[in-house]
Design a protein that fits this description.
By secondary structure, the protein is of the alpha/beta class. The chain is built from 30 helices and 28 strands. The strands form 7 sheets. Strands 3-12-13-9-8-4-7-6 form an 8-stranded mixed β-sheet, with helices on both faces. A 7-stranded mixed β-sheet has the order 18-15-19-20-22-21-26, sandwiched between helices. Helix 4 packs parallel to helix 5, helix 11 crosses helix 21 and helix 20 runs parallel beside helix 25. This is oxoglutarate dehydrogenase (succinyl-transferring). Its cofactor is thiamine diphosphate. E1 component of the 2-oxoglutarate dehydrogenase (OGDH) complex which catalyzes the decarboxylation of 2-oxoglutarate, the first step in the conversion of 2-oxoglutarate to succinyl-CoA and CO(2).
Length: 909
């Protein structure tokens, strides 16, 4: 251990006792301390002279200097010049010399502690100046909480060597100026040409644009080939044009109210311009190709975080063979949102988990110091909006947005750190908001003092131009010409936009990984897909998948599960788990990928799946599907206890990987409530808003089995109310084979649609919920399953039902030998199988039609079917539980009585 380490770890009393012992007998102390006391020269003078220390006082001073250095490293960020428009809050203790046991009298004393910051023996004055420049100027760094000495040393060495003071070449400064000029003038141009229109201006934080430009260039030099950006609306138009390369003409056309070209057969409603996504290819300064993607987003500010992360992971798996160093996510937050939105925490907690990690995210917070109209003091309890970074021990750089060079320096260091350590990094860009939440707002209503300061504050471009002119790097005419030329370009594009009739797509959806696929058309929805497989292949895969290795010791119950599955082959009765797993096995055999995630999905909430099994005597796991052909493409991950972020992640994953069956399973169907924003803003509406298809499958366990209000209903009614224009599929299957075909159908059509499945609980082991081999090998998916046990002319009532209640009705039908009631299963609730229903009406022409469900009258499928068939030739009546504010009773006796009443009423003619 070196002397400085001794000093930093020892207190004065300890050193004093050691020194006294050393003076009496040098051999009385450790050899290291002997060398320390022999070789260390205390109290060097400013002139370089020195005198041996007779007391440890000078050693204590050395300790104090080291404490000061570490104090700045730990707390210097509290005393920075990072706020461009107002004074920072005061924190105590401060950074005065007296805080560290030093005084002005010590400033010209030379201390060996200077070695700690790379100065060697140095005056206290110079040591303090270095750490002031490093930790208390335009950049405040938080990183000392990281429990990894190498990472801490990396950041300390980098920052202290540079003093956090960037050194750019003249060309580098001119590039920064060019991007800053574009950012500022673009906003100014929009403000004057489109008065009163919302644009969610970046004004007050325009340095974001040169920062993004720099991180892309720096990242490319470090091996990154692709960036995926997720951000909300603030500054989005500026990013789209000045970073992504979306044409100014297109943006202006959108402001002019021009519509995108549309196929009349495809429903496209569009979205506001500051929600749209975009992708492009650019060339870096050193000639490398870089692909950029900006994920589309709704106004639910941070939902896009999970989506963007899922997109990145999908590309890591599909395109980069697991190498996260070639692609990086950039998430751009608002200060109020990053502090208050729970999905930010959920997404950050995913960052180091095997199923979701993306090699580190670069987080940039556009810190306006206000959220909508709320003061930052009312927006969070934490010191900083970025304090959530500490959850994953990620470094944070707080940067004055008016110091554009400091911001570029910090973000370059951030991407370097990300590439080296594969972890998240946060940039807190402190700026302000020139106008209100949108350009029509009056911010003075709630922030009068702040906006008096902002009114007088020069913009970032003016500040940087002055700095460069004062340095002699440019003259004022250079800056004026830059602005004039850019304004002329913008005016030309605006003139062109005014002549545009319709906007053309700049980058088609069905390219890249989506090549060969297409949008769905109305005629496609009722068209069957070829999903059956050969008997030989089915049996072969079933045996391979369920033959556990003899040299591994499994739990006896697990062994029995697999033995029972093998017996299903002989008995020709395949249960739900086998139907599901065989769908995966056959798709893997066809070279498709499978990705499943959710809480406890490997085993399954109801212990039915066992896609991954654990050995009895160790934590070693075995994945049966890995044995079959293509098994290396099977991935199933138990998720963290999150629905919102995980579902967003899987949506993002499926959005860029259409040839993998991507599945999210809720532990119970009602858990999906916590992810409702993803259903509303992406799954149901993404194609209509953004022309972005998605084939994500959501499995939501559902069924009224007396388990109380929370774990009975997946809220089928909520998903059906989101259905329109064939935007997604909602199903509630009753047989393993139909479920098998439905899952396979997802990848066997030329288009992709989200699929929501109300999956069973009790049916997982119901003796009649089984399928024969021929159901898998000779049939396809059946939207409606007719009753084959009755004669049409004898039927007086047709019971339409969906899901588990079918088996309750069947039991009654069989027990009472009723041939006058036909039980017809509606397996696909949406899109409605109108053709099949019309055929049923003709077949059972003299019968009445009744919708029977176990859910309450105001829930389940009835409200939707009531609306859709109102006034039609199908005079549909209903039988259900009474309407209720709660999905189910909590009393088993009441549940049984209600269920019995429904079943009895269904047969009362």
């Amino acid at each position: 251990m070196d002397k400085l380490t001794y000093l930093s770890n020892a207190d004065s009393g300890y050193i004093d006792s050691l020194y006294q012992a050393y003076k009496e007998d040098p051999n009385a102390v450790d050899v290291s301390w002997q060398k320390f006391f022999e070789g260390f020269e205390f109290g060097q003078t400013a002139e370089g002279g020195s005198a041996p220390a007779e007391t440890p006082e000078q050693a204590i001073k050395e300790i104090n200097v080291l404490n000061m250095i570490n104090g700045y490293r730990d707390r210097g960020h509290l005393f920075t010049e990072t706020n461009p428009v107002r004074e920072r809050r005061k924190y105590f203790p401060g950074k005065e010399l007296e805080t560290f046991g030093l005084s002005e009298a010590d400033l010209d004393t030379v201390f060996n502690a200077g070695v700690e910051v790379g100065l060697g023996q140095a005056k206290l004055r110079d040591i303090r100046q270095l750490i002031e420049d490093t930790y208390c100027r335009s950049i405040g760094a938080e990183f000392r909480y990281i429990r990894h000495p190498e990472k801490i040393k990396f950041l300390q060495d980098k920052m202290e060597a540079d003093r956090n003071t960037p050194q750019f070449s003249l060309d580098g400064k001119k590039r920064i100026l060019k991007k800053l000029n574009e950012a500022v003038i673009f906003e100014s141009f929009l403000g004057t040409k489109f008065l009163g229109q919302k644009r969610f201006s970046l004004e007050g934080a325009e340095s974001l644009i040169p920062a993004l430009d720099s991180v892309i260039q720096k990242g490319s030099s470090l091996g990154i080939e692709e960036f995926v950006i997720g951000m909300a609306h603030r500054g989005r138009l500026n990013v789209l044009t000045n970073v992504m390369g979306k044409s100014y003409k297109t943006i202006f056309s959108e402001f002019e109210g021009k519509m995108y070209e549309a196929d009349p057969e495809i429903q496209f409603g569009g979205d506001v311009k500051y929600h749209l996504g975009f992708s492009s290819d650019i060339t870096s300064q050193d000639g490398k190709n870089i692909h950029l993607s900006l994920a589309p987003n709704p106004s639910h500010l941070e939902t896009v975080d999970g989506v963007a992360e899922g997109m990145v992971r999908s590309k890591i798996d599909l395109k980069y063979e697991g190498d996260s160093s070639k692609i990086a996510p950039i998430l751009i937050h608002g200060d109020a949102a990053v502090a208050a939105q729970g999905i930010v925490y959920e997404t950050i907690q995913m960052s180091k988990l095997d199923g979701y990690k993306t090699g580190g995210t670069i987080h940039i917070v556009i810190n306006n110091q206000v959220g909508f109209t709320t003061n930052y003091k009312d927006a969070r309890s934490s010191t900083y909006c970025t304090d959530i970074a500490k959850v994953t021990l990620s470094p944070v750089f707080h940067v004055n947005g008016d110091d554009v060079e400091a911001l570029v320096y910090a973000i370059n260091l951030a991407v370097e750190y990300r590439q080296k350590y594969k972890t998240d990094v946060f940039i807190d860009l402190l700026g302000y908001r020139r106008y209100g939440h949108n350009e029509a707002d009056e911010p003075k209503f709630t922030q009068p003092s702040l906006y008096k300061l902002i009114e007088k504050h020069p913009n970032t471009l003016a500040i940087y131009v002055k700095k460069l002119v004062d340095q002699g790097s440019i003259d004022i005419d250079f800056a004026k010409l830059l602005e004039k030329d850019f304004r002329a370009v913008l005016q030309e594009r605006l003139d062109e936009a005014k002549k545009v009739e319709q906007i053309s797509e700049e980058r088609p959806m069905f390219a890249g990984a989506w090549k060969g696929l297409r949008p769905a058309r109305a005629a496609d929805i009722g068209t069957s897909a070829e999903t059956k497989v050969s008997k030989d292949l089915f049996v072969k895969l079933a045996k391979e998948m369920n033959s556990l290795p003899k040299d591994k010791k499994f739990f006896r119950k697990i062994t029995k599960v697999f033995e029972d599955r093998l017996k299903m082959i002989d008995s020709d009765k395949y249960d739900w788990a086998m139907g599901e797993l065989m769908a995966y096995a056959t798709l893997l055999n066809e070279d498709y990928g499978i990705r499943i995630s959710g809480q406890d999905v490997q085993r399954g909430t109801f212990s039915h799946r066992h896609a991954v099994v654990t050995l009895e005597d160790s934590d070693e796991t075995y994945t049966p599907l890995a044995k079959v052909k293509g098994g290396e493409k099977f991935n199933i991950y138990n998720s963290l206890l999150s629905e919102y972020a995980v579902l967003a992640f899987e949506y993002g994953y499926a959005s860029v990987n259409p040839n993998t069956l991507t599945i999210w399973e809720a532990q119970f169907g009602d858990f999906a409530n916590g992810a409702q924003i993803v259903f509303d803003q992406y799954i149901s509406s993404g194609e209509t808003k953004w022309k972005r298809s998605n084939g994500l499958v959501m499995l939501l366990p559902h069924g009224m089995e007396g388990q109380g209000p929370e774990h009975s209903s997946c809220r089928i009614e909520r998903y059906l109310e989101l259905c329109a224009n064939n935007n997604m599929i909602v199903a509630n299957c009753t047989t393993p084979a139909n479920y098998f075909h439905m899952l396979r159908r997802q990848l066997h059509r030329e288009f992709r649609k989200p699929l929501i499945v109300a999956t069973p609980k009790s049916l997982l082991r119901h003796p009649k919920a089984v399928s024969a081999l021929t159901d898998f090998t000779e049939k396809g998916f059946q939207e409606i399953i007719d009753d084959e046990t009755v004669t049409a002319k004898s039927v007086k009532r047709v019971v339409l039902c969906s899901g588990k209640i079918y088996y309750d009705l069947l039991e009654k039908q069989e027990a009472d030998k009723r041939k006058d009631v036909a039980i017809v299963r509606v397996e696909q609730l949406y899109p409605i199988a109108h053709t099949q229903i019309e055929a049923l009406q003709k077949k059972y022409a003299k019968a009445e039609f009744v919708w029977v469900q176990e859910e309450n009258e105001n829930m389940g499928a009835w409200p939707y079917y009531c609306r859709k068939f109102r006034g039609s030739s199908l005079d549909l009546k209903y039988i259900a539980r009474p309407e209720s504010g709660s999905p189910a009773t909590g009393y088993m006796k009441q549940h049984v009585a209600q269920q019995t009443e429904i079943i009895n009423k269904a047969f009362e003619i």
